[in-house]
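Appendix B: a complete holo record

For completeness, this appendix reproduces one full record from the ligand-bound portion of the collection. The bound molecule is 2-acetamido-2-deoxy-beta-D-glucopyranose. The inputs are the chain sequence and the ligand SMILES; the output is the full three-dimensional arrangement of the complex, encoded as C-alpha cells. No fields have been trimmed.
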Amino acid sequence: MAFRNMLVLSLVFFLYIMKVKSSSVGDKISELPGQPVVNFQQYSGYVTLDENKERTLFYYFVEAQVDPLSKPILLWLNGGPGCSSLGVGAFSENGPFRPSGNVLVRNEYSWNREANMLYLESPIGVGFSYATNSSSYEGVNDNITARDNLVFLQKWFVKFPQYKNRSLFIAGESYAGHYIPQLAEMILQSNSKEQLFHLKGIALGNPVLEFATDFNSRAEYFWSHGLISDGTYKLFTSTCNYSRYVSEYYRGSLSPICSKVMSIVNQETSRFVDKYDVTLDVCISSVFSQSKVLNPQQVTETIDVCVEDETVNYLNRRDVQKALHARLVGLNRWLVCSNILDYEHLDLEIPTISAVGNIVKAGIPVLVYSGDQDSVVPLTGSRTLVHKLAQQLALSTSSPYRVWFAGMQVGGWTQVYGDLLSFATIRGASHEAPFSQPERSLVLFKSFLEGKPLPETF
Ligand SMILES: *[C@@H]1O[C@H](CO)[C@@H](O)[C@H](O)[C@H]1NC(C)=O
Ligand SMILES: *[C@@H]1O[C@H](CO)[C@@H](O)[C@H](O)[C@H]1NC(C)=O
Ligand SMILES: *[C@@H]1O[C@H](CO)[C@@H](O)[C@H](O)[C@H]1NC(C)=O
Ligand SMILES: *[C@@H]1O[C@H](CO)[C@@H](O)[C@H](O)[C@H]1NC(C)=O
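The structure of the chain with 2-acetamido-2-deoxy-beta-D-glucopyranose bound, as generated:
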C-alpha cells in the first residue's frame, strides 16, 4: 500500500515537473528591478530549438494591459541582422517600459495597450539567445533564421497553450524585412499541413525588401535633405551608387572608385548626423558605438545611442538578468547587436518583395510603413517597391495617397491597394519609428491590428 502510494506520489510529482518544464509557470516575471506597479503579467525565458538543448532562443512576453486572452499576439523582430528585439524593440520602442537611470518608466504608448507583445532575440547569438557550441554562430543565414523562428513559435505555443487560438501578427523593422516575409511564408507552408498558426497580418517598418531599390534611394534622400552637395549626388548616383558599394564591400572587392565616392559622401554627411533619423541629434558619448550591417562603412554610426546606453546598463545588471531568467553563455555582456554572430551578409541581396507578394496572394494583410526621417532605408524606396508590387498583383488603388491623423496633427501619408496591401509613412519618425514617434506609431499599429483605415480626420 505504502509502496503504491509512493508510486502514485512520484508519478504525480513527475507529471508536475513535466508540466512546469513545458509550461510558462517558471518563466513568469515577478517584477523587473525598478519597474512601476502594473496590472499586466510579463514572462521571459528560453525556448530550446533542438533535442540536445544546444541552441536556445530568448523571448520576453508582455501580456496586454486589458483582457489579454481576447487580444491578438504580436511577434516583434528587430533587424541588424544581429540586433536585439529585447533591447531595441521592447526597451526603446514599443514595450511597456524604458530604462532611465536605475528605474524603468512607463511608456504611455506601449503596444501592449492593443496586443500581447512577444519579443524574440533572434537569430541564435543575439542578446541572451545562445548556442552551447559556438560553431552554431557561423554561417547563419536567412534560411536558418526563418526555420529557427518557426520552431520557436511552435514550441512557444506549447508553453502558452492558452494563446494557441489567438490571432497572430508579426511586425518589425529594417532587416526584419527579410525575417518576417520569410517566416510568414514558412508559417503558411506549415499551416497547409496543419493549421497551427492564425496568421492575420504582417507589418514591415523601414524594411529591406529589395536591396538595390532600397539602398539606392539613399542618395536622393541625402541630397534632398541637404546632407550632400549637387556634385556628390551625381557621383553617388552615376559613378558609384550605394548598392554597388555595399555589394563590393561584402565581397571584399571594394574598388578604388567606390571607396573614393563613399569617403566623400561620408565626409559631407558627417558622423555627427544620425542616419537613422537625419533630424535627431546624436549622443556624443556613444558616437563610437557598434556597426550595423546596413551601414557597413559607417562603423561609428548607430541608432539612438543614449537610450541604448541606458538599456545596455539595465540589461547588464545581475538582478535584472535574474528577474528575466536570462543567462549569459559564452559572453561577458549583453549587447544591443551581437558581435559573435557571423551572418551571411550577402543574403542582404535576396529580394523579399516577392515573398511579400505571396503573402498578399495568400490573403494575409501586409502593411509597409516608413519613419520618414530615416535615410538608411528611406520611404521613397519602400513606396516604389509597394507600388510596383501592387501593379504586379494587379491590385488597384482602393484609397489614394492621403494624409492620416494622430491627435490633431498629420501623422503621415498612406495609400492602400486592393484590400490587403497598404503603405504608410510616419511623419517625423526615425528608422525606429515607435521610438521617436510613439503616439503616431500606436495609432498606425492599432488600425493595422483592427484592419481599419487610418484616421482621415480628427
Ligand atoms: C561543435 O560543432 C561542430 C560542427 O558541428 C563539431 O565539429 C564540433 O565537434 C562541436 N564541438 C563540440 C565541443 O561539441
Ligand atoms: C534557402 O532555402 C531554399 C529552399 O530550400 C534554397 O533554394 C536556398 O538555396 C537556400 N539558401 C541558402 C542561402 O541556404
Ligand atoms: C482552440 O480552438 C479549437 C477549435 O476551435 C478548440 O477545439 C480548442 O479547444 C481551442 N483551444 C483553446 C486553448 O482555446
Ligand atoms: C547602381 O550601380 C549598378 C552597378 O554599376 C548598376 O547596375 C545599377 O543600375 C545602378 N542603380 C542605380 C539605381 O543607379
